[in-house]
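Lab notebook, bench 4. The sequencing result for the construct came back, and we need a structural model before the next group meeting so we can plan mutations. Quick request posted to the team channel:

Model the 3D structure of this chain.
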Amino acid sequence: MEEKTASEALVPLFKLDRLLNQDQGGRRIALLGSINDKPTLLTAERAAFPSDIKTLEAFHKCLADVKNLGTNDIYHWYLASAGRSEDSPPDLKLNLISPCTEKHIKKYSPQGVRIVTESPQIYKDRVRPYIAKQREEGRLDWVFNILEGRKEQEDIIFRDAGQDGAKDEAFLLAPDLNWDRKTLTSLHLLALVERRDIWSLRDLKKAHVIWLKHMREKIIEATVKKYPEIDKDQLKLYMHYQPTFYHLHIHVVHVMLEPTSTQAIGKAFGLENTVSQLEMMSGGPDVGMADVSLTYTLGESHDLWSEVYLPLKEGGEN
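Done. Here's the predicted structure in token form:
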């Protein structure tokens, strides 16, 4: 017991010299300092959240200094402290979706994952009609709020009117709602195109290559200008398929951002590789990503699994 008490008494004696490293999206740090003039290394990692219902029921009531970072439609995001004092630095990034939908609940619930191959025919006959239905249900209101100047205008990092003012090439760059806006190694931005006829990477064609290269150049230039601590070769650009929402957008992340499943093969398609694939396609300007088979991961709770790929599998077609 005495040894344990003596050990616990060491931590308050730690004197910080410098931060050695910060990784895992800012959730783990390594500090160099001293205790009693002896070199000392202190590492800290945020503990896992509890899972028992009784503790979780009190979780939100224990939060201090909740600061709103932004609000758009049903989405709200905050910084907060889990400490007992309002002087405690923010150590939590909160996202609130209210009212949430059944699709939100499915997205954030545990689920099995499958690998599927989507042929051009499956996309045309089954997937594209599904995407059209999603767009008709008003799921893009928050995107249009940004594009039309109603929300998040103060957060926009860069707007591009397109090459020579071509309106169908305009786009903007803004922070992703999951980024805490301060930890550069977990940087996550979104580039949203203003045109509304490109729903996903499936709509990209050979004719779009020059535009995509222009976007890539401008996105990188704007990002390193806004955050000069970041070099151009520390940025990764990709698109999701299937994406969370069906309006073309490009993710811009720091290469040190923890590679979760959203950056994994089968979910993230690199912008540069997609452009190269389009360039190598034989045919005229209208050939594109709708003409190739795509293999990707799909959660078992996703409507496309239950409505398209599971029936195909059970019917022996996939």
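Residues 36 and 114 are 55 Å apart (CA to CA).
Will bring this to the meeting.
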